[in-house]
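Help! Submission page says 'invalid entity' but I think these are all valid:
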Amino acid sequence: MIKENAEVVVVGAGVIGVSLAYGLVKNGAKVILIDKVDNRLTSSRGNFGLVWVQGKGKGMPRYVEWCIEAIEKWPEFAENLETESGFDLNYEKTGGLEICLGEQEHQERVNFIEEMSQESSSGRYDCEMISIKELQGMIPEIKLGKEVRGASFCSYDGCVNPLNLLKAMNSSFQQKGGGYRPEQSVQKIECSSNDFKIETGTHSFNAKKLVLACGLMTTKLASMVGMKVPVIAERGQIIVTESTSRVFNYPTAGIRQNFDGSFMLGTSHESVGYNIETSYEVLQNIAKRAIRILPNLKNLQMIRSWAALRVLTPDKMPVYLESDQYPGAYAITSHSGVSLASLHSSNLVEWILEERIPLGFSAFHPQRFNVQEAI
Amino acid sequence: MSIAEYDYTIIGAGPAGMAAAITARKHGLKVLVLDEQPTVGGQIFRNIEGLEKYRNSEFHKLGAEYLSGSKLVQQFHNSGVVYLNGRSVWQIDRDLGIHNVSTIPTDQKSSVPQFCKTKNLLIAVGAMERPMPLPGWTLPGVMACTAADVLYKSSGMIPQGKVVLAGSGPLLLLIASRLLDAGVKISAFLDTTPRGALIQALPYLPQALRSFGYLKKGLEMLWKLRTSGIPIYSGIQAIEALGNSKLEEVRFKKGMKHQEVSADLLLLHNGVVPNVQISRQLACEHSWYDVQRYWEPIVDDWGNTSMARTAVAGDCGRVSGAVISEISGHLTALDTVRQLGAITLKERDKLSLTLRQTLKNHQSARPFLDKLFQPTQNLIVPNKEDVLVCRCEEVTVREIRETVRLGFQNPDRLKSMIRCGMGPCQARMCGLTVSEIIADEKQISPEEVGYFKIRSPIKPITIGQLAEND
Amino acid sequence: MFKKQYESHETVTIIFEGKSLDVGIGQTVAAALLGEGHLIFRYTRVSGKPRAAYCLMGVCFECLLEINGQRNQQGCMIPVSDGMKIKRQMPPKGKIQ
């Protein structure tokens, strides 16, 4: 077995693991980043690329503030990362839309936005309903479908190339001396009084701190270090079209046009276990909805499709946890790894290295799930 | 509206597909054959009906193979099979629902997508040319050598201007031979078969002599080439296509010497590989055939894959040519007929006896040919790092190597980092090369590296067609 | 660079880049264009470089043309038909149809 030492071992090189590792190494820590043997179940590869606030954090105002803080840090985060890595992130903060079809959807959205605004203690939640006319005016080059009733618009929202984000952070991490150890799955974790020993098939890593950012493997690995973190897999399928001229310049949760001119169409939510196949019915439903919103999409060819598993906690909001039993071991899981990358590479780094807990962090403790269960 | 159901659906109407259909129909199965082309024949018998009807002298020039192919076509059309031409299969569900759409999307009438169910499936989609990445290979005027064959058979066109042939393999010899017969003046023949290839292949020669017909044909073509007066350069190690907006010159390296020859058309060939797009979309297991450096679906003696009720026949299983493809079509269908209860195991074995013997005779030349025409490393993994590997997304050898060095050695992970394999061709042109480059970089076998996950659509379909109700 | 060896028994009129061409029936768009001396079919999205047909059997997706207003059509898979409007495919810009 090859033995290696580090200050921090990060397990999981998806967007969260890489953000943490990147941030840690920028703050001078000696970091090793472990990436499991690729079994195609990596969630971060299947990402729509939204850098998003609207729609998140219903019932948890602390999370809404967290998201807003993340977005405010994003432009500088993106600029630094682009300069360091040499890769384009194609980050666009244009504001984002959720387009409503039919009266019911529209009314539900109106209510939702109203409730979110009321919940926002800081008053910083900024999302408004816009009319069909205003909406069409924002996207003059492509016609809206007849059933479109309007949309909600949030000025914080934007989008990024999520694959380039992964690549940029990982390469920057390595450039700054971080050790990336791919194709290695963690088999065993041993905890002693002052460090952790992490064994994969071929390597044995020793570190003072252990950060688990391993997506769907979180429950299993967290239990090895005394933490209970429930996560479930939820499948989402995506259609990617041929490239065409750029006409749709605002991201929405279900339709966005990439930098290369192709459209990505979603969304879907299925509980199918660890199954990453696409299905005709779901792809058809996605196509149907997309055409109802933008009828001209019907002439575009689908040239590829994919499916990936979201990593969701019971309330879909983050868990940031340090082990009580084994201090120095952390478990981090969140559905919004892309949007929160700016914070994961800064605020969380402070938490892990300097043990400075961010304000209101207790909101992200998984004990909230037990409370919900009790109800 | 009820959904059409078949006992046996065959994708591909080449020799394997037609043979399978004929045998299945003999035993009373309800058979559907789907093919993208407007007429039957696959690649080897492309436009055989058109040639026979409208260009009879050329039809006869194509030789005994085309004559026997013609018989097969007749039997196929008389078999009572349901044959749909101009249909592209874009997705096959795990329970063998077949989604297909017209190959001619601008034709409003037939653009309605179709769906049918089938008890058993046969994938008989044939083979494709191994991509041969080299500097300048994306220049207009550089083509795969079979393109010349397609143009000749389907449209009666022959190349004019300065034609250069480059590469290695029986197919290249065949194309050269055909072009010579058609009166085309070939400027140069650049043979990349390495010196010593014959010695390496000699152990398999005695076995190959059993099907002397193949070897005789090959020797005849070689003789025709050698006596044609065409400049032949052997043992070529590197080829470059040069030009501004189209091909103007071909540069090649023989030993230490570089030479240039003026060219309007460069026809490349570096072997034939199974088209595994559909078998991979279905998640059939594949194994690596190292001698010829390609993936083939794992099958039993009857062509059954690792997926239930799914078989392959012909060159999309193991590249072996038209005659073997036809026999394998009959054999695979016989077992399918047994699976569906129309014949017993004993009957199947009895009926297949002669076929198996014929198959064995024809297969005896393959190990020799496969070894003789083994693809060479320098033409599989380009030396020059500027060479485009993924033509669709314009990803270079350099980008791939650099990304592997960053730690991304899994093909799908690599794909997500640099987009190779994301374009319209869905890795048909770059998949093999990507795996080989990763293998070379990590000093492991391509088998260990693996291949991209291939998903639907196998061929593009519009959002509108997808959204339409069946 | 390709010439026809025989006369077609029937022809149709296609329009390539605004010019009418009489071409033999039963051949693909790609073959028809090559037969008329048109080599370059498109310019790539990534770098704007010229591309032409490569495999002519539906594998390489290089022969992508705009046919009757629809982009990314494989010229080698589509037979010519009377009145068909064909254009070289340019990198995406302008409105989608």
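Support: the input was valid. A stray whitespace character was the problem, and the output above is from the cleaned input. Residues 24 and 349 of chain A are 6 Å apart (CA to CA).
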